[in-house]
Amino acid sequence: MRRHRGYFTPHSGLIAKVLAGLGHEVVVLTAELPEGGGAVEQEDGAEIHYLAGTPPEKKGGRFWQNSATAFDLLHAERPFDIVFGRGMATWGFLQHSSFASEVPIVLHEGTYPRWLHQIESRADWLAPLLAFPLAPIFALKNRKAHAFMRRAARVVCNSPQLASALRRASWWRPYTTQAIVYGFDTSLYQPKLPSASEPARLVSLGRLAWDKGVLPMIDVVALLRDRTVTLECMGPGSDKVRRAAAGHARRRGISDRYTTPGPVQHEEVPQRLAGASVFLFPSTHAEGLPKVVLEAMATGLPVVAYRMPVLDSLIEDGVTGFQVPARSVRAMADRVDQLLANPALAEKMGAAARLKIETDFTPSAINAKWQVLLGEVLADTSARKRG
Predict the structure, then answer these.
(1) Which residue in 118, 259, 282, 354 is deepest, having the highest Cβ count within 10 Å?
(2) CB 223 within 8 Å of CB 253
(3) Would 11-184+363-386 and 187-360 be classified into the same CATH topology?
(4) Residue 309: pLDDT band by 50, 70, 90 thresholds?
(5) Can you list the pairs that 64-71 forms with residues at least 24 positions away whose Cβ atoms lie under 8 Å?
(6) Which residues pair with 30 in a beta bridge?
(7) What residues does 111 pair with on adjacent strands?
(8) Cα separation, 175 vs 118, whole angstroms
(9) What is the pLDDT of residues 211-258, one digit of tens each?
(10) Which of UniProt's keywords are assigned here (predicted)?
(11) Which residues of 367-378 are buried (b: 16+ CB within 10 A; e: fewer)?
(12) Neighbours of 322 (CB within 10 A)
């Protein structure tokens, strides 16, 4: 939750805020406080229970047992109607709760199957041929998660591409998937044109990690025709990765134009993005729907990204941004050069990007989809109990 990562709004926090805003009573069971220990607090209308003895980022045995125990105590006081979970966080509910058979589970997924992503990002025409026989093998290797998703009343995905991918990954007995994207309030993000009197500024936002493209971004800047362009990479990263990136920037001759301010508090993001020229997203991570791309588009920035399935519903090539072949630094640099040489094109593309977010990610429309889903799950549960 926000206490764990002030610089990042977790998916569970987004969903809890939406459900509480719709008037539902929302209780979140999460890992202990950053300083250790437990507490009960209010956040965005939801009641947050920080469970002592469950270290963040380690959703294992202790979290599963403690969260199931906490659930049972709360459920006995005032029964819950639906359990939400992300990834394997709710595994403990299935294994240890006395009420696992009574309360329907809705899972929220935001990560593309990594094995399928690796196939599809390298060979479009070959992907269907490979995915069909490989899917059962990977399901067997991840049988807990596979069984868990089959058990869910709904597997809600944050993009249509992810929902389709999960069905392909379980083709012999597909999960009940449904796509609901994030509702996005664009009023927090105001477009601002780059200053004509200052060097062009490229920005990225996210973890400083190998699969997020920390080194390719440096290579892009080193290849640009304009030798004054700066690059700002905002986000958390290990000391090892930060040192490697700094050394790479030095070897490529751009260390004086490369900055890594570290994690940026979420409320500061709109201001940090405003006035940039281009947003870089050379990620090879198995993304579900990257929120940082939504934020950049809402700020009116053209996005240049490595091509991946989930971006097809966001970046229309040549209209709201550019998608280039994965791992092609040269292609990404060429597109950035094109935008920097043509400010009118960059401005037009940024405006189209913002309009895309305003049109397709309207909070009221997305919230209505959540309300319909809740009603369907409850109706199905009631019908089964009557049967």
Answers:
(1) 282
(2) no
(3) yes
(4) confident
(5) 64/91, 64/92, 64/93, 64/95, 64/96, 65/92, 65/96, 66/92, 67/29, 67/92, 67/93, 68/92, 68/93, 68/95, 68/96, 68/97, 69/96, 70/29, 71/29, 71/97, 71/99
(6) 50
(7) 287
(8) 21
(9) 999 999 999 999 999 999 999 999 999 999 999 999 999 999 999 999
(10) Glycosyltransferase, Transferase
(11) bebbeebbeebe
(12) 23
What tokens appear for 247 in the block?
């050394």
Topology at the third CATH level for domain 187-360? Rossmann fold (3.40.50)
Closest CA to 3 of 61, 37, 84, 58: 37
Q: How far is 204 from 271, CA to CA, in rounded Å? A: 13
Q: What is the pLDDT of residues 257-280, one digit of tens each?
A: 999 999 988 889 999 999 999 999
Q: Hey, what amino acid is at 316?
A: E
Q: Per the confidence metrics, is the pTM higher than 0.85?
A: yes
Q: CA 91, CA 1: separation in Å to the nearest integer?
A: 19
At 344, give phi and psi (nearest 5°): -65, -40
Q: What is the mean pLDDT of residues 147-172?
A: 90
End-to-end distance of the chain based on CA atoms, in angstroms? Answer: 39
Alpha-carbon distance of 211 to 290, in angstroms, equals 13
pLDDT band at 4 (very low <50, low <70, confident <90, very high): confident
At 261, the amino acid letter reads: P
CATH of domain 11-184+363-386: 3.40.50.2000
Residue boundaries of the structural domains of the chain: 11-184+363-386, 187-360
pLDDT at 122 over 70: no
| Residue 307 token pair | 């091509």
